[in-house]
Design brief:
Blueprint lengths: L1 E4 L2 E4 L3 H14 L5 E2 L3 H9 L1 H9 L2 E2 L4 H9 L9 H15 L8
Parallel strand pairs: 3-4
Antiparallel strand pairs: 1-2
Helix pairs in contact: 1-5, 2-3
């Protein structure tokens, strides 16, 4: 479920669900943008329309920050913090299993 937090789209998702989504994206083919917004990114997106557009258009926006989890809980939505570093390790392991390449930007 995608939820708006101060105008920034965040997927209310667990780490396991995020990796399942990555598997679905791989099966669908194409290129995808995956982001792990944290509260600082959400606040920066308030001032930076381009950043907000990138995050909002991402194929997956997994919440990386307790502040976002708190905001989702305030909306009555359950989610779990998905640290970007941990998700990246999971994605790299999945890519290695499938013989795929990973491109990192940033």
């Amino acid at each position: 479920m995608r939820v708006s937090v101060l105008g920034v789209a965040v997927d209310a998702i667990t780490r396991t669900e995020a990796l399942d989504r990555v598997r679905q994206l791989l099966e669908g083919g194409g290129q995808h943008v995956i982001v792990t917004p944290n509260p600082e990114m959400v606040m920066a997106a308030q001032r930076d329309e381009r950043l907000r557009g990138i995050v909002n258009a991402a194929s997956l926006a997994a919440p990386d920050g307790t502040g976002l989890i708190w905001a989702l809980k305030r909306k009555g939505i359950a989610a779990e913090r998905v640290p970007g570093v941990e998700l990246m390790v999971d994605i790299c392991a999945l890519a290695a299993q499938r013989g795929l390449r990973v491109f990192l930007c940033g």
